Amino acid sequence: MTTRVAVIGATGKMGRLVSSLIEDTDGYELVARLNSKSALSEMLGADVAVDLTAPGVSQRVVEFAVDHGIRVLVGTSGWSQERIDSLAFRLAGLDDTGVVIIPNFSIGSVLGSAFAAQAARFFDSIEIVEAHQAGKVDSPSGTAVRTAELIGRARAGLGPVSAPHTDQRARGQQVSSVPVHSLRLDGLLARQDVFLGGPGETLTISHNTLSAEAYERGILLALAATRTARGVTVGLDRIVDLGLGEAGADSPRSAGSAATSGAAE
């Protein structure tokens, strides 16, 4: 069975990549390419809509698709937990549609975030630095937000990370208590570093995207999952079995955490 796909934001870098993959992959047919001047109605007739627009446009694209029974794969940043919860409420009880939201299509990036969440149980001092090309309009990146949320979830029984001087703007934006710093520079594609510190040691988990080829496997996996999606699915880690157990609230406390992570500073 062939899945008919509409790409919204088809003239951007990711839009061109996704469109090319769809055309080159058996089982898919690219039926519409929408740009900023296109009417959303041009996606009608598709089984799956791929949203690769901008944070200020994405919600309207998704709501239009859902209202017309079209499943959606979202590759646009800017989906906060509040917005995701609102979308999940909108989809409640609908068995014939679903939305898959992927902050980052790179397998390596997803592994890096998962490793950081695993390590977060054992370190109380954690910060994220993410760097992207100068043209990226949103910050922090969706990947950094997702990583911080996973860290916060892993530390649910431990309390917030140790993040002193949060009143100073240079200390970054806090997401799930984790300071996140964003760089936007010419010459970069995407990079994320998670720095974890403890008594006498530090651990750095880095992922560097060198070319758009890094996204191809994840895009195809996400497209396949969107074909039958119901409700809201967030993150490639919810589609791919990474072979890692999730850190939960009953995880062991890290050394020294009672003194440092129990109170906000």
Give a structural overview.
This protein has 7 helices and 11 strands. It is of the alpha/beta class. It folds into 2 domains: 3-104 and 213-238, Rossmann fold (3-Layer(aba) Sandwich), CATH 3.40.50; 107-210 and 246-260, 2-Layer Sandwich (Dihydrodipicolinate Reductase, domain 2), CATH 3.30.360.10. It has a 6-stranded parallel β-sheet, with helices on both faces. A 5-stranded mixed β-sheet has the order 7-8-6-9-10. Helices cover 29% and strands 25% of the residues.
Number of contiguous helices: 7
CATH architectural grouping of the largest domain: 3-Layer(aba) Sandwich
Main sheet strand line-up? 2-1-3-4-5-11
Approximately how much helix is present in the residues?
25-40%
Query: What kind of sheet is the major sheet?
Result: 6 strands, parallel
- Globally, the shape reads globular
> Helix/strand/pairing class, anyone?
alpha/beta
Distance, first to last CA: 56 Å
The overall number of domains is: 2
How many beta-strand elements? 11
Share of residues in strands = 25-35%
CATH fold title of the largest domain: Rossmann fold
CATH superfamily of the largest domain: NAD(P)-binding Rossmann-like Domain
Q: Please tell me the overall pLDDT.
A: 90
Contiguous low-pLDDT stretches (5 residues minimum) are: 246-265
Seen as an oligomer or otherwise, the chain set is single chain
Q: Please state the CA-atom Rg, rounded to the nearest Å.
A: 19 Å
Q: What are the secondary-structure elements, in order, as H or E?
A: EHEEHEHEHEHEEEEHEH
